[in-house]
Every structure is written in structure tokens, then in C-alpha cells.
Design goal:
Layout (H helix, E strand, L loop, with lengths): L7 E7 L3 H12 L4 E4 L11 E4 L3 E4 L8 H9 L2 H4 L2 E4 L2 E5 L2 E5 L3 H10 L5 H12 L11 H8 L4 H15 L7 H14 L1 E4 L2 H15 L3 E3 L4 E7 L2 E7 L2 E2 L2 E2 L3 E10 L3 H10 L5 H9 L5 E9 L7 H4 L2 E5 L6 H5 L5 E7 L15 E8 L1 H5 L3 H19 L6 H4 E7 L1 H8 L13 H11 L3 E3 L9 H22 L2
Parallel strand pairs: 1-2, 1-14, 2-9, 6-16, 14-20
Antiparallel strand pairs: 3-4, 5-8, 6-7, 10-11, 11-14, 12-13, 15-18, 15-19, 16-17, 17-18
Helix pairs in contact: 1-9, 1-19, 2-19, 4-5, 5-8, 6-8
The chain binds flavin-adenine dinucleotide (FAD).
């Protein structure tokens, strides 16, 4: 970490989520002077871990990502990172309509749809092809519901199989444009679901090493308080916090470009300030809908207690609702939970984790269902969330209460506190946020945004890839203004 910050950089990246870090890495490698500012004391944003007394280690968002991450990491990070990406083989579904296990590849899904669900193979092939060939130039009026009705009319069970994991993966709904579903579904469906062997902590350590190798100055606990704009041009940022133990309150660091990885609405309406933009752009920004948030329950088994891999799998999509309904996924009265099961094989190089098994239960959630509670009700709701999760988990991990060494929960309020995402959004904004994010630079030369917007630019792969796109934009701008 840097001890002292320079007075000026070519570009300042605000936020060290996967998009911010990837952009900073590319820009550093290209030869630009780069400062990466992070308000938290850790790099990674939502790609993070936390440790608890007793040697427990929990991953927040390491549940699964598409195979494309291998190529992106090899090209924009390094081979060491890319080589640690491995497939999750046991993806399970358990709900009143069906119970099954799949490798989540196109081949295996086709087999299931034909053999178990009785869909004609040409229909399955046509659906996969249509989803795979969708692009931004397509009709954006077609909703995901309409897409399913075209291929699988009246088949709520098929819709559930195809939709539930994607809703979990990025909060998309049947009412969102089919395009957003098609692209994400095809990304996952090409080869299956992947994970990072070694855990998120190792990934972030390796990324940090690469950032430093490429000359990026990294400043933690250093919030950007303001993106400074003069005569409609970026001039730098005001940075607060303690850098190298020295408290800097509101110091101006100059730069030709600023790339914000903070929440899109927060970037425009707070960090840059709405007075910096044309009124129509401000109105468009305010109309952007936030994506939903999440709850998570983290459970560490007592050392020596094990999970039954045949019963649990790696990733388990469960629901007690009779049919798939988007509004049920967000409801406070939880019917759908996705479990990630972590075995010692997740961290094969960590001897202290050799007998550790963890479960992380995730649900989608509405921010205001949690943020508007009184402190007493909030505490009680968190306890209820943990208790009901243990009750439900018992069917997959018998006697889980007796086996549990540590349990705690995160809510939308927790996600907001750690990332400052408006509404504690787990996946940034809805699809319309992408156009706003892409227009920033036309509004204010030198100002760029990258990070979870829309469904396609969210999740680990989406964030990394959007970081690449934004880095190219910044690079072109810096070359022009040289
Ligand atoms: C519960 C949960 C589970 C998930 N599971 C998966 C999964 O299984 N697979 C998957 O692919 N994706 C998953 N995701 C989503 C994925 O983690 C995110 O889409 C991705 O990590 C977001 O990256 P990002 O670059 O947009 O930035 P973020 O991770 O949102 O990070 C933004 C960073 O900016 C910093 N920041 C904000 N404001 C400032 C400021 N003013 N100054 C300095 N720094 C600032 C924040 O502190 C933060 O570090 C999950 C998310 C959640 C919440």
C-alpha cells in the first residue's frame, strides 16, 4: 500500500470492486500513472471474505460464475489467477416441482429438459440458439416471460428450472428484457458454473500483487469524498481518510480522468453532484432503478463435522413455493434459499482450513424491508432469519444446530454499509443504468464509470469485463489529451 499519495495522477479509480481493480490493472500495465482509492480497509468490494474467531473464514460472493472468467483473468490479470478457476460439478435443485442434479452445461440441461421434462429436443435446441444469439441490437421490448412463452407455453416447471438460478445470480425477473436473460443464461450455460480455488481472499491477494507490479498506487481506508469538476472537465478528487497513518481530510489529488466504480447513482448524484450535469441527464439518472439486495446467513460447522457432498452438492437452489414467482423471491417471508457448500477442497493450500466446512445461505431481499426497521426489530429479524435458515437447512445437513460452531447474518443494510451501494444493491442497477453509465464521459470529459449496471455488467465476470471496456475508454481519452 502507498505511504504517501502523489499530488497528481493520469487517472484515479474510485472503488476497488472487480471492475475498479481490473480497470486500474490494465491502465497501470499500459503505462499510465494510476491511483486506486478504496473507502474500505480491504480491496475487492463485494468480492471479499471475512474471518471470525476460531479460524472461520466466509466468502461473500464466491458462489459461481461463467467460464468466460478464465479467459478474462488470463488476458487482463495473469495465468496464476486464471489457472485456479475450476468447475463446480454438483449443482442441485430442490423444490415442490422437481429435485435434480446437473453440471449446468448446455449438454446436461438439454438432456434434463428432454428426458426429465419431456420437452421436444428441437424446441430445446431452438431456445438455446435464440438465447445465445441475442445481442444489444435485438428487440428490447421482448420480456423474459414472453421469451419463455414462445418456447415453453404453460410450462411453469421448465421456466423455474431456467429462471431460478439466473434470478439468484443477478436479480433478474420475468419482467426484465429477454435480452438480459439471454446473454447471462448463455454465458453460464456454455460450460457450467465455475469457482476460484483458494477462496476470494487468495484471489484478491493475487490481484493486489499484480496491481503493485504494474505500478498502481493502492490507497485503502481512503474514501473519495468528491469528484472535482471545473468548467465541465474532471480535475481530480477530494480524498479523505487515513493514508499511511496520516489523516488527510479533503485533500485534492489531481487527475485528467476519474473512473468511478462506486454505485452509478451515487457517482452522479453525490460524488460528482447533480449540478455538474445537464438536467435531462440528471432526470435519466434518477429514473434508473436499483437492483435488489440480498440477505446471507453464514454457518461454520464445528471442526471435525462434515457436510455430505452427495446430499448437498456444491450449489443448491431450494424453494418451498409451489411455483416460481419473482415477487416471492424478494418477500420477507422466505421461500427460496440458495445454499453454497464449501468443502476443504475450496482452499487446498490452507492447512488450517483442512477440516473446515461452511454453508452460506443467500436470498434476494428488498432494502427497505430491513432498513426501515427499528433497531430492536432489526435484531429480532436477523435472529429469525438465522433460526429459520437452520430449520430449513436441517433437511440437507441433519442436526445442523448441534454441528454449528458459528452463525451470523448479513442483510441489505450490511451490504450498504460495506460498499455504499444505494439500496444495498447486490447487482448495481437495472438494465437502463448501462446507457447512463456509458454516457458519463459525453457529459463530463474525463469522467467514467464501471461496475454493476444492468444484468450483463454485473456479477464477477460482468464486473471484470466492464472494467476492461472502461479501461479502454480511459486509455483512449488519455492518449487524445496527451
Ligand atoms: C450476496 C451476494 C452474492 C453474490 N454472488 C455472486 C456470485 O455467486 N457470482 C457472481 O458472479 N457475482 C455474485 N455477486 C455479485 C458480485 O459480487 C458483484 O456484481 C461484483 O463483485 C461487483 O463488482 P463491482 O466492480 O461492481 O464493485 P463492488 O464490488 O460493488 O465494489 C465497489 C467498491 O467501491 C467502493 N467505493 C464506493 N464508494 C466509494 C468512494 N466514495 N470512495 C472509495 N471507494 C468507494 C466500495 O467500498 C467497494 O469496494 C454477489 C453479490 C452479493 C451481494
Amino acid at each position: 500500500m502507498v505511504k504517501t499519495l502523489k499530488d497528481a495522477y493520469d487517472v484515479i479509480v474510485v472503488g476497488s470492486g472487480l471492475a475498479g481493480m481490473t480497470a486500474a490493472n490494465i491502465l497501470g500495465k499500459t503505462g499510465h500513472s494510476v491511483l486506486l482509492l478504496e473507502r474500505h480497509y480491504k480491496l475487492g468490494g463485494l468480492a471479499t471474505t471475512f474471518a471470525r474467531t476460531g479460524g472461520h473464514l466466509f466468502d461473500i460472493s464466491l458462489h459461481g460464475f461463467p467460464v468466460g472468467m478464465v479467459k478474462s483473468c488470463r488476458r487482463y490479470w495473469n495465468a496464476e489467477i486464471a489457472d485456479r478457476i475450476v468447475q463446480l460439478r454438483r449443482i442441485r435443485f430442490d423444490n415442490p416441482q422437481f429435485s435434480l442434479e446437473t453440471t449446468f452445461s448446455r449438454e446436461d440441461f438439454t438432456r434434463l429438459l428432454v428426458e426429465k421434462f419431456g420437452v421436444a429436443e428441437p424446441t430445446v435446441v431452438a431456445f438455446f440458439d435464440k438465447a445465445r444469439n441475442m445481442s444489444h441490437y435485438d428487440d428490447q421490448q421482448l420480456s423474459t416471460r414472453e421469451l419463455f412463452d414462445e418456447f415453453f407455453p404453460g410450462r411453469e416447471d421448465v421456466i423455474r428450472l431456467l429462471m431460478e438460478p439466473i434470478t439468484y445470480a443477478n436479480g433478474s425477473t420475468l419482467e426484465d428484457p429477454a435480452l438480459t436473460y439471454g446473454i447471462v443464461f448463455s454465458n453460464f450455460m456454455s460450460k457450467g458454473v465455475f469457482t476460484f480455488q483458494g477462496g476470494t481472499d487468495l484471489l484478491i491477494r493475487l490481484m493486489r500483487r499484480e496491481l503493485e507490479k504494474n505500478g498502481v498506487d493502492v490507497a485503502l481506508s481512503s474514501p473519495c469524498e468528491r469528484i472535482c469538476i471545473e468548467s465541465r472537465k474532471v480535475v481530480g478528487v477530494l480524498v479523505g481518510g487515513a493514508v499511511g497513518g496520516v489523516v488527510d481530510k479533503g485533500r485534492l489529488i489531481r487527475s485528467k480522468a476519474v473512473l468511478s466504480n462506486a454505485n452509478l447513482k451515487g457517482t452522479i448524484l453525490q460524488l460528482a453532484g447533480e449540478e455538474s450535469f445537464a438536467p435531462e441527464f440528471v432526470a435519466e439518472t434518477k429514473a434508473v432503478r436499483l437492483n435488489n439486495s440480498s440477505t446471507q446467513v453464514y454457518i461454520a460447522l464445528k471442526p471435525g463435522e462434515q457436510l455430505d457432498g452427495d446430499r448437498c452438492g456444491d450449489l443448491l437452489f431450494t424453494s418451498t413455493a409451489p411455483a416460481f414467482r419473482t415477487e416471492l423471491l424478494l418477500n420477507r417471508s422466505i421461500t427460496s434459499r440458495t445454499y453454497s457448500f464449501y468443502y476443504p477442497s475450496v482452499r487446498p493450500d490452507a492447512p488450517k482450513q483442512a477440516d473446515r466446512y461452511y454453508v452460506v445461505a443467500s436470498t434476494n431481499a428488498n432494502y427497505h424491508d430491513w432498513a426501515d426497521l427499528s433497531p430492536a426489530d432489526y435484531g429480532a429479524s436477523k435472529r429469525e432469519l438465522m433460526e429459520s435458515t437452520l430449520d430449513h437447512l436441517d433437511r440437507y445437513v441433519p442436526n445442523v444446530r448441534e454441528k454449528t460452531a458459528h452463525i451470523e447474518a448479513a442483510t441489505p443494510v450490511t451490504f450498504r454499509r460495506y460498499t455504499d451501494h444505494w439500496g444495498g444493491a447486490s447487482f448495481g442497477t437495472k438494465y437502463e443504468g448501462l446507457a447512463v453509465s456509458r454516457q458519463l464521459h459525453q457529459q463530463i470529459p474525463g469522467l467514467f464509470h464501471s461496475g454493476s449496471v444492468g444484468i450483463i455488467m454485473s456479477g464477477w465476470l460482468g464486473a471484470v469485463n466492464y472494467g476492461v471496456i472502461a479501461a479502454n475508454d480511459v486509455d483512449a481519452f488519455l492518449l487524445e489529451t496527451r
